[in-house]
Design goal:
The protein is mainly β. It is 9% helix and 48% strand. The chain has one domain. It has a 16-stranded antiparallel beta barrel. A two-stranded antiparallel ribbon has the order 5-6. Strand 14 and strand 15 form a beta hairpin. The longest helix has 22 residues. The chain binds copper (II) ion. The site of copper (II) ion has 4 residues, from loops.
């Protein structure tokens, strides 16, 4: 099984690497002028950036593409306060009203999921997200609001089958194992304010209930290389499970391509009640350095100390460290390439240090097709009883989706993916395979 996975994985990475090389000479398109309304125009010179910063102060609402968090383009913003490459496409319908810039985006996946072997299960479910954003100039800076909702709670408390995935609980008593937990109805309700500090620096404040602290790469559903896949990563609780945190405040300082930020947040993971707002002391901390050296890359290093994340092990804390690189390159007529490479370490306190690796790649040869892959390796200690011995497990998924435009802003997609797994025989997975078939409605 290991060699089968390794071979398939090498093949998939070679395909993505080859397309990266082929596309490299193709320059990202069109960066003339100050065409701020072009959503796909991601290249930006320093002069344009400076002009934009000035514009943002003098023209207010007529500069829609400025990030609410600093003097850079909005395309760079991903979930919470995380950064993706400036060359990432930005989905959404945009409206200007009374000084406000409003943006909306929605995505729903109707999924049939079949995870094989003795530990597998199958299920049909609805997943996705609805996102709204608003921003306006205020007192020499920018005020921003973000709301993100998930239909996940409707799939039921036990989430959906996903071999090798663990984390959170269905009922407050039984840990979810070989399943992905449903996300909360309110994934993000956040407000932010940013303003220039002088010398090219911008300061920002972000508060969410819930929101995302300054840790890790953008949450998986916001990473370009992952967003066309309806399945969660099995490394979710290493890299990005903090994306729904009930209580977070983040302060950041950015300058052109750099940002340094720190968060105070509530460490406890969301509980089994997926429709509520939870509160509590901000007992945990996180810090992150982000660097977008070119429009095509977003790099970050981050660290967090999480107080009592798991309801079932209230005496246990965690520290997590993560490094990630995101790549994005648009090409040709609506095509794009994107990739994520990430590493994380979870230190159980007290307990083991568990490492995780993740690669994601997506190739869009034209506006209709997207081919995507994800390969993961993680040291898991929750597959044989809670915090049992750690076992190294691997998963590879490859899939594709074909989108049919229904209008300028609405697309219907038909997709499928297949997964292979590698786990020690003692865990009793018995060489399973898994897969999902899905229909996606995308608005904006
Ligand atoms: Cu999640």
């Amino acid at each position: 099984m290991t060699t089968k996975i390794t071979r398939a994985w090498l093949l998939a990475s070679a395909a993505v690497a080859a397309s990266l090389c082929l596309a490299a000479p193709a320059q990202a398109q069109d960066h003339a002028g100050h065409d701020m309304d072009r959503m796909s125009d991601a290249q930006m010179t320093d002069a344009e950036m400076a002009t934009m910063a000035v514009d943002a102060e003098t023209m207010g609402a007529s500069t829609p593409m400025r990030s609410p968090l600093g003097a850079y383009r909005m395309q760079r913003d991903a979930s919470g306060t995380s950064w993706q490459p400036d060359a990432s496409p930005m989905d959404g319908v945009m409206v200007h009203k009374g000084g406000w810039m409003l943006m909306g985006h929605a995505l729903f996946n109707g999924v049939y999921d079949d995870q094989g072997g003795p530990r597998g299960d199958d299920k049909a479910f609805l997943a996705g997200m609805v996102m709204g954003m608003a921003q306006r100039p205020l007192g020499g800076g920018t005020l921003g609001f973000k709301a993100m909702l998930s239909p996940d709670p409707f799939m039921g408390k036990s989430g959906y089958p996903l071999l090798l995935a663990t984390g959170e609980t269905a009922d407050g008593q039984t840990p979810l194992v070989d399943r992905q937990h449903p996300h909360d109805l309110f994934m993000e309700l956040a407000a932010s304010y940013s303003r220039p500090l002088g010398g090219g620096f911008d300061g920002s404040l972000y508060a969410g209930l819930p929101g995302e602290p300054a840790f890790g790469p953008p949450a998986f559903m916001h990473r370009q290389a992952a967003m066309d896949s309806p399945e969660a990563p099995i490394t979710h609780h290493w890299f990005d499970s903090t994306h729904i945190t009930f209580g977070v405040v983040t302060a950041g300082v950015s300058r052109q391509t750099w940002k340094v930020e720190a968060s105070a947040f509530r460490g406890r993971e969301p509980d089994q009640n997926r429709y509520d707002i939870e509160t509590g002391r901000l007992d945990s901390v996180a810090t992150r350095v982000s660097w977008n050296p070119t429009p095509n890359w977003a790099l970050q290093a981050s660290w967090t100390r999480i107080n009592s994340p798991e309801a079932l092990e209230p005496g246990d804390d965690e520290a997590r460290t993560s490094l990630s690189a995101l790549y994005a390159r648009p090409f040709g007529n609506g095509g794009s390439l994107s990739a994520t490479l990430a590493w994380a370490r979870k230190d159980r306190i007290p307990g083991d240090a568990l490492q995780a690796w993740l690669f994601e790649g997506a190739v869009k040869p034209d506006p209709h097709w997207t081919v995507f892959t994800r390969a993961e390796q993680v040291e898991q200690d929750e597959l044989a009883g809670h915090h049992g011995g750690a076992a190294t497990v691997r998963k590879l998924s490859v899939g594709a989706i074909y989108d049919v435009p229904l209008s300028d802003t609405v697309k219907l997609g038909f997709g499928g993916l297949a997964s292979a797994f590698d786990a020690p025989a003692a865990l009793g997975y018995d060489d399973p395979t898994g897969g999902m078939a899905f229909v996606r409605l995308k608005i904006g």
